[in-house]
Amino acid sequence: MNPLQLIVTVLVLLILFTLINMMMNYVSRRDGEPPVPLKRKLWLVPLLAAFIIVPIELFSILYAMLFRVTDSAGQMLAYNSGGVLLSLPLLLLIGFLIFEGLVHPIMITLLRLWLRRDASVYVKQTVTVITDSILIYALASVIPAVPVGSWLHALIIAVFYHLIEWVLIGIQAWIQQRKRAKAAAPG
Length: 187
Fold this sequence. Notes:
The chain is mostly helical. Helices cover 76% and strands 0% of the residues. The protein contains five helices and no strands. It has helices at residues 3-30, 38-67, 88-115, 121-142, 151-184. The chain is globular, with a radius of gyration of 20 Å. The termini are far apart. Residues 71-77 have low confidence and may be disordered.
């Protein structure tokens, strides 16, 4: 790994660690629990980051092996025989986190101001998919090793990511509904 790759990788990991730390603080405040102690955060934050990074990197290596992505012209973000820690999926993940926390709320707020009322869930999801498609297309344009050829390809990838999200949200809602039903049932 050259020095530029190392610096960018460290910056990406710092951003990821910071976002996980902020999420832990938010969840503990929201649930009314005491804040997570620093000693626990020192091992928990890297462990949670590893649960995010390791599968993404494994899928990136699998993608590179299946589609023969090569390190042409010394691209810093392409997978080569030595491997690179920083890849398009990791950049997409961080982009999605930034978009989810910053861009999507701004877009929904502008939509509310424009419509002068709250938008439906479907309109909000449509805006989210379109902004994520723009993110995917922009990142793929910067990284020539990734074959995203058109807006349609970026839209399909964004819809695929959101389908996974919607399925996971549905499973979580189903589990919570079962827990509530068990708690309410006389036993």
